[in-house]
Amino acid sequence: MKKLLAFGVASVMALSLAACGGASSTAASSEAADTASSGAATTEATGKKWTIATDTVFKPFEYTDASGNFVGIDVDILAAIAEDQGFEYELKSLGWDASIAACQAGQADGMIAGASITDERKASGWTFSDGYYDSTQTLTVGADSTIAGFADLSGQTIAVKTGTQGASYAESLKDEYGFNITYFEDSPTMYQAVLGGQCVGCFEDTPIMKASIKDGDLALKVLDDTASDPAPYGFAIFNADNQELLDAFNAGLADIKANGKYDEILAKYLG
After folding, report:
1. Is the peptide bond before 60 cis (omega within 30 degrees of 0)?
2. How far is it, in rounded angstroms, from Cα 116 to Cα 240?
3. Whole-prediction pTM
4. Which of 22, 45, 60, 268 stands the most exposed, by the fewest C-beta atoms within 10 Å?
């Protein structure tokens, strides 16, 4: 079991380090952006090349593959929309908190990072596109854990990633079920806290958690009967001057759903 835990943690941390190695703008991110925009005309109305921020480790939505390329559902959806709408962009792999900060500071024009569309985020300055994927959050525990649901969490400590919908879901339940919350900056460290026994479980987006368990061979299990209500992911801007980009995203999203490209992308990563 110790060997299994060590291997699982090492796999996830290796993925994290690979993705974070170029936090400001990785070669993989630039390659993906250049590939997506090759032959595309610059946005006609502004003559601008858009800067798009994203997370670093959020498989299968954005991550680094074995060849060092930045890939994932969000990456491919953005590339397909840019090709459909004829705009150029640079994709910057910054991490969750840094992506938000870059958009708020005007250093990035938009953000695509598996961000759930919520009223709280809208109230704090996020402007979202149409939803492009419906996701739930679920409780994940150790593979040999006896915890079967929320009722078993009284007096226990749960791990969450700061600023995520998983954290919000945990916060909405903690008083009712009497558990404590510890916050982490990234998913791999959060998983390690559960694997190492510092926390009895964690809340994570369901497709992300399942992909991480499968690919990292982690000794964890998702408790599907703990899922939240589905909520859509959206592309986001934080400045009204970038409305043109949001409009282009929505128009392109409608087109790739109509022509089948959207379904091809989901099938590629989710099967």
Report:
1. yes
2. 20
3. 0.70
4. 45
212 alpha-carbon distance from chain centroid: 12
Helix, coil or strand: residue 40: coil
Q: Quick one: the chain helix, strand, coil %, rounded to 5? A: 45, 20, 35
pLDDT tens column, 105-138: 999 999 999 999 999 999 999 999 999 999 999 9
Query: Cα–Cα distance between 99 and 86 in angstroms, integer?
Result: 24
Please write the tens of the pLDDT for every residue from 69-89.
999 999 999 999 999 999 999
Same domain, residue pair 253 and 189: no
Same domain, 242 and 266: yes
Tokens 């379904």 locate to 263
- CA–CA gap between residue 69 and residue 100 (Å, rounded): 23
Taking Cα atoms as reference points, which of 127, 122, 130, 176 lies closest to residue 149? 176
33 and 98, same domain (yes or no): yes
> Which residues have C-beta within 8 Å of that of residue 259, sequence separation ≥ 6?
none
Q: Pick from 226, 243, 258: which residue ends a domain?
A: 226
Q: Give the domain extent around 238.
A: 2-134+233-270
Bridge partners for 148 per DSSP: none
Assess whether 10 and 144 both reside in one domain. no
**What CATH number is attached to the domain comprising 77?**
3.40.190.10
CB 109 within 8 A of CB 172: no
186 contacts 94 by C-beta, under 8 angstroms = no
The amino acid that residue 89 corresponds to is Y
Q: How many domains does the chain have?
A: 2
pLDDT at 31 > cutoff 50: no
For the cut 50, the answer to whether the pLDDT of residue 200 exceeds it is: yes
